[in-house]
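Sample entry (126 residues):
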Amino acid sequence: MDSEIQYVLGLKAVRERAHRVLQLAEENRLNHFQYHPDRLRDAVQYVISIIKTSTISSRPMVAGNTLISGGVKQPEDLLKQWKSNGADELEQTRSLLDLFFVSVLLDAGAGDKYVPLKWARLALCT
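Predicted structure, serialized as tokens:
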């Protein structure tokens, strides 16, 4: 696989781009959004409240369902792999959050044409 494609499919690219977007937001250089750091806690609380009040039946394509497909508990397998590769608990947590974040973004707008993502394609724990 081409190294550029491998990079784009990796979690490192997701983190780097997310940090770059945050940097641009902090510099007020986003075209379509405004960043309000004083409202971040409220935003986090809002997301938590949505998660707590939603049921699986009302959100059938949650990231956790994407990561557990075909009877394969992919997060558990990935954690074992990452641990055997020397990733500490903090890095394992970061990697899981990255995967869930990407999963939610990919699921957004999937509608009734949803197909579970094959996580094996991602270059994990770079």
